[in-house]
Amino acid sequence: MSDQRGFISADQFHPDPYTQSRNAERTLNAAIVHADISRSYEEYLEIFDEFYADDVEGSSETTEEPIRGKPGLRSLIFAFMVPLHAMSEVGGVSISVRQTPIPGDVVDETHSAWTLELVGVTGKVCTVTWRTFRKWNDSRVVLEHHYDHQQSGEPLSDGDLRFNVLEPPTGFHKSS
Q1: Is pLDDT above 60 for 1?
Q2: Of 67, 74, 54, nearest to 142 (Cα)?
Q3: C-alpha to C-alpha distance for 164 and 133, rounded to whole angstroms
Q4: Which of 116, 111, 109 is nearest to 32 (CA)?
């Protein structure tokens, strides 16, 4: 009869690279999905700063050259998020983001499917989908590639937004 005692391995505190990349992917994607673009675009920039390596490389099937380095990708994200924030906060557009993991077995690589849905105040819907490939180094994204972009529905136009433009008060006459 043996008297075996519980033993905690140091490996439990430092997961293998496969588990580490999957955990980081789940955490990053959950942060993106739960961020609220109508409240702030800065939250997305904070997520980017937290999860992406300084020497990250970003690309898509629509770009000729990859963007290298955090500053270049950060400005691209800024240019994408600010109009979405304005459409949501000021224009009344409902914006939702969904993500679905795509199973894989490569140690430091992950894939996921994304859906961005924009619903204008008129009820018009524009849905954009794409897939994301990420390469991880520990808990930092070192490469991100977007592919398989598709759009259903027409882009939203000015008529699909609610912009509260100030109108002159009744009885106000412009001088000629």
Answers
A1: no
A2: 54
A3: 40
A4: 116
**Stretch 70-75: mean pLDDT, rounded?**
96
Token pair 């180094």: residue: 137
Confidence of residue 4 (pLDDT cuts 50, 70, 90): low
With pLDDT > 90 as the criterion, what percentage of the chain qualifies? 73
Q: Is the dihedral of CA 122, 128, 129, 131 positive or negative?
A: negative
Burial class of residue 52, CB neighbours in 10 A (0-12, 13-18, 19+) = buried
CB atoms within 10 A of CB 144: 21
- Which pairing describes strands 140-152 and 52-60: parallel, antiparallel, or unpaired? parallel
**pTM for the whole structure:** 0.81
Question: Do residues 44 and 38 lie in contact, with contact meaning Cβ atoms separated by under 8 Å?
Answer: no
* Domain positions in the chain: 15-155
CATH number of 15-155: 3.10.450.50
End-to-end CA distance of the chain: 105
Residue 124 CA to residue 56 CA, distance in Å, equals 36
pLDDT at 107: 87
Q: Are 72 and 48 in contact (CB under 8 A)?
A: no
Tokens for 148, please give them.
């398989």
pLDDT at residue 33, as a whole number: 97
